Automatic annotation (TrEMBL):
<keyword id="KW-0285">Flavoprotein</keyword>
<dbReference type="InterPro" id="IPR006076">
    <property type="entry name" value="FAD-dep_OxRdtase"/>
</dbReference>
<keyword id="KW-0274">FAD</keyword>
<dbReference type="InterPro" id="IPR036188">
    <property type="entry name" value="FAD/NAD-bd_sf"/>
</dbReference>
<feature type="domain" description="FAD dependent oxidoreductase">
    <location>
        <begin position="4"/>
        <end position="386"/>
    </location>
</feature>
<dbReference type="GO" id="GO:0047545">
    <property type="term" value="F:(S)-2-hydroxyglutarate dehydrogenase activity"/>
</dbReference>
<keyword id="KW-0560">Oxidoreductase</keyword>
<dbReference type="GO" id="GO:0005737">
    <property type="term" value="C:cytoplasm"/>
</dbReference>
<protein>
    <submittedName>
        <fullName>L-2-hydroxyglutarate oxidase LhgO</fullName>
    </submittedName>
</protein>
<dbReference type="Pfam" id="PF01266">
    <property type="entry name" value="DAO"/>
</dbReference>
<comment type="similarity">
    <text>Belongs to the L2HGDH family.</text>
</comment>
Length: 391
């Protein structure tokens, strides 16, 4: 039997392990933390994206469309929450309408079902507290509990005879003679790396290229105080800036009934630092030394400073969100836990937009899997497993 190691017990590592175990492989998942979903998977917005924004034909577009259907079915099978509360993307002024039309064009080409273009009155009917000149509605965008989905995947892996070994940090990888040796201790026929914020480092351990490097971006959230959650029925998003892969501060209803506002996107001083004051010199040094980051910073310093200002001052964060939900007051917001995104950056300073999955001999590495990778996890798992089994 083929023995396959998987680095990372986030949603991608476990979805892939589950798929490989179902195909008859002997699977061992390794994670340095003491629990599954400890990083990005446990610190995200919990939205099952319908596939609105992504370039038609890209991996993001195809795997998100396939993945959301698989996720919905899986949640139904396992009795996990999956609520189709719907989403609106709001054009705040006429200047944003052409960009919203472009999102509508992409969404239509991607096959997103039930799309509806709304004028200001139509928006008011769907989201009475949102304000804009037009909006695009996606009724099947949903909310889920990604950590619960990930725990269910871990159960599937162990039920299929696989092993999930927590508290095991991969520090050495040696691929030779058709075998992959991890930490001079475990021997596999193949290895899959789904290491999220550490994916470039683990790829380098396996002799892969340093490019693209991971640049961590903190995403900070506030939560609406319970008396103000009626400001939002489902999910309300602004029209995103097409230069960035981030969606802009938005209003997200959670499966626990709360409403989060966020996340922003500020360069993080530690890859796994969830508090603003967290700084890890080795992480910061690696980011600053990466030529791609320096080029990115030179090109986008104005946006960076604006995001940092919004991060430092709650009134500025609230003002951004108030631009499409005018009744929001800074006093309605209380701080909520932040997340850190693993965003791959190429040496020329471009933010890698699509999912990127590479292979070097018997090692397959997920090098870039930002949002909507949690939504797409079951489809990404199919895609990665096919590559692994074909080695
Ligand atoms: C703020 C934020 C909001 C988001 N919102 C959404 C959303 O609404 N919808 C959506 O679809 N996606 C969203 N995403 C993206 C989504 O969360 C990620 O794409 C997804 O969780 C990636 O999963 P992963 O398994 O690749 O990474 P992770 O969940 O980060 O898991 C990687 C794992 O690898 C382990 N690891 C790393 N290095 C080692 C090592 N050397 N040895 C052993 N283990 C190691 C880590 O401990 C970790 O558990 C969001 C992300 C963020 C940060």
């Amino acid at each position: 039997m083929t023995h396959i190691g998987v680095v990372g017990a986030g949603i991608l590592g476990l979805a892939t392990a589950r798929r490989l175990a179902a195909a008859g492989a002997e699977v061992t998942v390794l994670d340095k933390e003491g629990r599954v979903a400890a990083h990005q998977t446990g610190h995200n917005s919990g939205v099952a994206h319908a596939g609105l924004y992504y370039a038609p034909g890209s991996l993001k577009a195809t795997l998100c469309r396939r993945g959301i259907g698989m996720l919905k079915e899986y949640c139904a099978e396992r009795g996990l929450p999956y609520v189709e509360c719907g989403k609106v993307v709001v054009a705040r002024d006429q200047g944003e309408v052409p960009r919203l039309r472009e999102i509508e064009r992409r969404a239509t080409e991607n096959g997103v079902p039930g799309l509806r273009w709304l004028d200001a009155a139509g928006l008011h009917e769907v989201e009475p507290h949102a304000s804009g000149v037009a909006a695009l509605r996606s009724p099947y965008t949903a909310i889920v509990d990604f950590p619960a989905v990930t725990r269910a995947f871990a159960e599937d892996v162990t039920k299929a005879g696989g092993t999930v070994r927590l508290g095991f940090e991969v520090t050495r990888i040696r691929a030779m003679g058709g075998e992959v040796v991890v930490n001079e201790e475990l021997v596999f026929d193949r290895l899959v790396v789904c290491a999220g914020l550490q994916s470039d480092r683990v790829a380098r351990l396996a002799g892969d290229s340093p490019a693209p490097a991971i640049v961590p971006f903190r995403g900070e959230y506030y939560r609406l105080v319970p008396s103000r959650t009626d400001l939002v029925r489902g999910l309300i998003y602004p029209v995103p800036d097409p230069r960035y892969p981030f969606l802009g501060v938005h209003f997200t209803r959670r499966v626990d009934g709360g409403v989060d506002v966020g996340p922003n996107a500020v360069p993080a001083l530690a890859r796994e630092g969830y508090r603003r004051r967290d700084l890890r010199p080795a992480d910061l040094w690696e980011t600053l030394r990466w030529p791609g980051f320096r080029r990115l910073a030179r090109r986008h310093w104005r946006t960076g400073l604006r995001e940092m200002y919004g991060s430092a001052f709650k009134h500025a964060f609230a003002a951004e969100a108030r631009s499409f939900v005018p009744e929001l007051a800074a006093a309605d917001l209380v701080p909520a836990p932040a997340g850190v995104r693993a965003q791959a950056v190429d040496p020329d300073g471009s933010l890698v937009d699509d999912f990127r999955i590479g292979r070097r001999g018997p090692v397959v590495t997920v090098r870039n899997a930002p949002s909507p990778a949690a939504t797409s996890s079951l489809a990404i798992a199919e895609h990665v497993a096919a590559q692994v089994l074909e080695v």
